[in-house]
UniProtKB/TrEMBL annotation:
Pfam families: YdjM (PF04307). The chain crosses the membrane at residues 16-37, 43-62, 69-87, 107-125, 137-152, 158-174. This is Uncharacterized protein. Keywords: Membrane, Transmembrane, Transmembrane helix. The keyword Transmembrane helix applies. It comes from the Bacteria.
């Protein structure tokens, strides 16, 4: 019964997270609506820039007005964008598959497309893990479910999910390793005192 109550308390946060994860899955393709200014796969929309700017705006102007911690909003966006970017790694880095600067340049970054997508995806997953402070396992299940759904129903391939799984689990492993290393150092410090 106690776990059931815990899940009920989490429901509004989980719902907000899932909603913004869903928005984040398709937010990078906002550039398609802005083709006169942005090229498809714009460096602006196919990066962590939008959730980063949203977090800055919320922190500066809206933090006190929000009914709960805004990290569920930005974390969901980061997660969705990260999943989208991992799927985009499987497109060729030419033509519509490359990352482009916006108008007036509208120039491709060419082969740097792959490192750009992977770096931004890794950073997005890092931010997702960092911003969720409680019940991490539930949010990990939600992001994994979102990645699987996106791979199957949007990309029609399991390859993006496999890449997501490798990169996301690596981010989690590194964060856990750093945390355990940090805790071990604190234990040594307290023993030496």
């Amino acid at each position: 019964m106690e776990n059931f109550i815990k899940v009920l308390k989490l429901t509004p946060k989980g719902s907000i997270y899932v909603f913004f994860l869903s928005v984040g899955l398709y937010l990078p393709d906002l550039d398609l609506a802005l083709l006169p200014i942005l090229h498809h796969r714009s460096i602006i929309t196919h990066s962590i820039l939008l959730p980063f700017l949203l977090a800055l705006i919320i922190e500066k102007y809206l933090k006190e007005k929000l009914p709960l911690n805004y990290s569920y909003i930005t974390s969901g966006l980061y997660a969705g964008i990260g999943i989208h970017l991992m799927a985009d790694v499987f497109s060729p880095a030419t033509g519509f598959g490359a990352i482009y600067f916006p108008w007036p340049m509208k120039m491709s970054i060419g082969i740097l497309t792959y490192p750009w997508l992977i770096f931004n995806g890794v950073y997005a997953f890092h931010k997702t893990q960092k911003d969720i402070l409680e019940n991490k396992i539930i949010f990990i299940i939600l992001i994994v479910a979102g990645a699987l759904w996106y791979a199957i129903f949007n990309e029609k391939s399991v390859k993006p999910f496999l890449l997501f799984g490798i990169i996301y689990s690596t981010v989690i492993f590194i964060k856990k390793y750093k945390l355990s290393k940090h805790l071990s150092l604190e234990e040594l410090d307290t023993k030496n005192e």
